[in-house]
Amino acid sequence: MQSEVRLGPVGASTATATATVQNAAVVVVVAAVVRAAAAPLGGQNRSSPTVDRPDSRLLREKMNVRPVASSFWRSARRLTVAPLTRSALSPPAAAFHQSRPVRSEGAKDGPILSSQPPRKTKRAKAVEFSVDRSNLYQFAPPQDDPALPKVAKEAPTPLAKDLLSYIKLKGPVTLHDFMSQAANHLVHGYYQAPTEKIGARGDFVTAPELSQLFGEMVGLYCVLQWQKMGSPARLQLIECGPGKGTLMADVLRVSRRFPRFAAAVRVHFVELSQNLRSRQWATLQALQSEQPPAAAAAAAAAAVDAEAQAPPPRIEDNEPRALRLAADAPEVAVSWHSFLSQVPGAEATGAAEACVVIGQEFLDAFPVHQFAYTDKGWRERLVDIDASQTSPLHFRFVLSPNETPAIKSLLSTGHTAALFRSGGVFVQGLPDKSAKAAGRGARQPATSGGYLVDAAGQPLHQQTPSAATSPLRAGDGLEIAPLALATVEDIARRLARAPAHSAALLIDYGEDFTQEDSLRAFLNHRQVHALSQPGVADVTADVDFRQCRRVVEKVNEDEAKKREARLKLGQADAAAPRSLVVPPLQTQGEFLMALGIVRRVQRLIDEPSTTEEAANQLFASLKMLVDPAQMGKRFKVMQIETVVASASEPQPQPPQP
């Protein structure tokens, strides 16, 4: 029996083609084979009662089944099938079959097989339908430019092979997903590999690796914040993305000069990579053995080399390890966590201890979404396969044909997401490309389906502008890192719920405005294409400190509303009201000089034991850290502090009944 489905020619807008579907007669044949095996030739089966078996030829005629080769029947009839009786079933199955018997009549405990032929089916009529393919979108393959020479493709990394297979099957992926896999793929991710990443043997260098001076100034900042808190007996030092652990080692080295501070400290690392966890613990152990910084770095590097031969034991979450900074000093507990929310004290009822959160070159590692404005509205930048012969890369950038979920959630028509709203006003201005190229840094007003604002973030109109008055032009873009902003929100909420003064220090490269495209990658201290060598190169993007600051302001507003709601219900807060303060954004040079890094270098140079070579090295490190032409201006410092209302200030009281 056959049923026909007709379709038009392939490639047409409304097309048909002809296909033949074979009826499921095979099921009937298999059922007949099983029944034949249950009652073999030669008489009655002695191990089970006889089952009535209809004549197979008659059954085929009734069902219009095409005859099967006799050799198949001969081989099938030689099969022996153990009878499946009700006693062999589990109690639930036996109860089910008892309520719905399917065995043949007259057999009390026979095989559970139906002796009745299947119902006769009607012949299906031919169905004709068409498919409209006019709106289906296919990404056009890249066209080779005849003027460009052909180049060989770079060797694909293991992660590139996985991504190529995935994109071939599912289509282009968002840049956000591409960066997520490149950084934290469980097997082939950049931060999961046991290779050296930071320092001379790695792909990039950070301020703590350049000089011990940077870590000393951060350690001094932590001591000053601890004193502002009233020198509590317990203090959480939380570092997010600690790298090799060099910064925390320098902070703890400074704490030796402040015994009460060292006794109060509890160290918490927020780190996903097991390889980096082992490296961080090796760095702290070198500090424990009183090794100088150079020797400690060499010992940590040797630990990395040994790790390739025999991986160290895993460092699990929330399992503290003891570290003794001095022979007569108490032990410092060091713990690791995969996420900030796992650090003790993140419960909604409030943190148990005051804390200082440190994030140095941490937020730049989060993936970003990139959007481009077109004549059809916002479109997202995707990553597709590049099969051309004129590019050495295996991937290329394409624009989504329609709105993506990220566009709808972050840049949807008529509003923006909560992370990009401030009183209902979209606060992003797009940089003018011509002025930016000229070095003037002028900025143009912008909209995102919300309200029009000027370069200072002030609304120009109270209604959504029409497309005719919108200053957006085709080619304008936005770069958004929602996970980075969500992390800043988590940090802010932790500080807002702390029982006493707490602080956060975020140091990273970025700007005080949203950029169009700051994506780049580094490999062996060279900048490479962002899509090159995924999983091997370090992919990064600038931090949007303006939006980070507005996230903190939003947390302030939410916490204030919660306090007002509790007061209306007659629930007075036991602790004094707290609010978060974000001081003006500083450059790294301004921050370090305010802490006295210049005086520290002068004092070290004036020491009699300092050689001329050491003095030159100190001066070079100082210049690298604070010079605006180097790291001094490129890196920004964002501070978040908790301000607790004093007892002398009038506090709101719950309403009296």
Summarize, please:
The protein is an alpha+beta fold and 657 residues long.
The backbone outline, from C-alpha atoms, is globular
Radius of gyration: 35 Å
User: How many E-type strands?
Assistant: 25
- Measure the end-to-end span: 83 Å
Helix content: 25-40%
SSE class: alpha+beta
Fraction in beta strands: 15-25%
Number of helical elements: 20
Mean pLDDT: 73
Biggest sheet character: 10 strands, mixed
Which blocks of ≥5 consecutive residues have pLDDT under 50? Answer: 1-54, 65-90, 92-115, 413-469, 647-657
Topology of helices and strands:
Blueprint: E1 2-6, E2 14-15, E3 18-22, H1 25-38, H2 56-63, H3 70-77, H4 91-99, E4 127-128, E5 131-132, H5 158-170, E6 173-174, H6 175-184, H7 207-210, H8 212-228, E7 235-240, H9 246-255, H10 259-264, E8 265-270, H11 274-288, H12 293-309, E9 321-324, E10 331-337, E11 354-360, E12 369-374, E13 377-385, E14 395-399, H13 405-410, E15 430-431, H14 433-438, E16 443-444, E17 477-480, H15 482-496, E18 503-511, E19 520-523, E20 526-528, E21 538-540, E22 543-544, H16 545-568, E23 578-581, E24 586-587, H17 588-594, H18 597-606, H19 612-626, H20 631-634, E25 635-644
Parallel strand pairs: 1-4, 7-8, 7-11, 8-10, 11-18, 18-22
Antiparallel strand pairs: 1-3, 2-5, 6-13, 9-10, 12-13, 12-17, 13-14, 15-16, 18-25, 19-20, 19-21, 23-25, 24-25
